[in-house]
Specification:
Elements lengths: L1 E6 L3 H16 L4 E6 L3 H13 L3 E6 L1 H14 L2 E6 L5 H6 L5 H10 L1 E10 L2 E3 L2 E5 H11 L8 H12 L3 E7 L2 E13 L21 E7 L3 H7 L14 E6 L1 E6 L4 E4 L2 E5 L2 E14 L2
Parallel strand pairs: 1-2, 1-3, 3-4, 4-15
Antiparallel strand pairs: 5-6, 5-15, 7-9, 7-13, 8-9, 8-12, 9-10, 10-11, 12-15, 13-14
Length: 287
């Protein structure tokens, strides 16, 4: 195979870089080019060059680099694979890509290209979940945290954020219908999980051409805290404060500024238009 590994060297606090020798060894029989990224824009350039050189683009790092590579591969009309190297690796969890390096590398040879949907926030591609509100503040904390907690960093930051949280009013439209929620959060989901296995939208699919809109309305901090562990099983949606609906286009706004986070990175600001493109990118997945 002709492969180009687009790696975020800082993903997972340097985890991707530490795993690189193992990846090189596992792919030693392949025509492999390794390209560390210096920025997300640099990743776009690397992807365009790789597809032009008739190579399968392999994203290695966290969900941020996976989403960015997916968007660029979709534009270039190529095929991509994924090797998990971040803290959360939620896209891999969603589609059955092995979380161990050896298994993910083996899948590059045995997997088949399959169509996967992409979300877009103001035209910026994401592969997982775009959210505002409580999630935004959790992600802001996680971005600057140096605590060695792995994927549990998101749960830790969630608990810390609850203490200072003040309810917000979220407004907009869902497929043109007016939408307003006062409370904690609104998330627009392409795939179903984030934060290292938190199943925010347990019914979401990357192949249905739809977005799952999950909102959390006002409730006590104690009740919200008790619901957080349920995210790992997806049973939080049974709580009265949570609601889920599907849509193909969502307009988001709020009564105070939030950055829109998706795949662990800030990708837009409010107000924001979120859409989905069905079968936008071809990804090597288990058959």
């Amino acid at each position: 195979m002709r492969l180009q590994l687009v790696i975020n060297p800082s993903a997972g606090g340097g985890r991707a870089t530490k795993l690189l020798p193992t990846v090189r060894a596992a792919l030693s029989g392949q025509d492999l080019v390794v390209s560390p990224t210096s920025s997300l824009a640099h990743a776009d350039e690397l992807v365009a060059a790789a597809v032009a050189d008739d190579r399968v683009v392999v994203a290695m790092g966290g969900d941020g680099i996976v989403g960015r590579v997916a968007g660029a591969v979709a534009v270039a009309g190529g095929v991509m694979g994924v090797i998990p190297g971040g803290r959360g690796n939620d896209f891999c969890r969603a589609v059955g890509i092995p979380l161990d390096v050896a298994g993910a590398c083996a899948l590059l040879a045995t997997g088949t290209p399959q169509p996967v949907d992409l979300g877009y926030a103001d035209g910026n591609a994401f592969i997982g979940i775009a959210s505002i509100g409580f999630d935004s503040e959790v992600q802001e904390r996680a971005l600057v945290s140096r605590l060695p907690l792995g994927n549990l960093i998101y749960l830790w930051c969630s608990v810390a954020t609850v203490v200072r949280w003040q309810p917000a009013t979220f407004t907009g439209t869902v497929d043109g219908a007016p939408f307003e929620v006062r409370g904690w959060n609104v998330a627009v989901s392409n795939s179903g999980s984030y934060g290292g296995g938190m199943r925010l939208a347990p019914s979401a699919s990357v192949r249905d051409g739809l977005l799952d809109v999950v909102s959390a309305s006002e409730t006590s901090k104690l009740r919200f805290l008790k619901a957080l562990p349920k995210l790992f099983k997806g049973t939080h949606v049974d709580e009265p404060a949570f609601s889920v609906q599907t849509a193909s286009a969502v307009h988001l706004d709020a009564d105070r500024p939030f950055r829109v986070f998706a795949d662990g990175d800030p990708i837009a600001t409010l107000p924001c238009e979120v859409t989905v493109k069905q079968a936008a990118v071809q990804v090597l997945l288990p058959g």
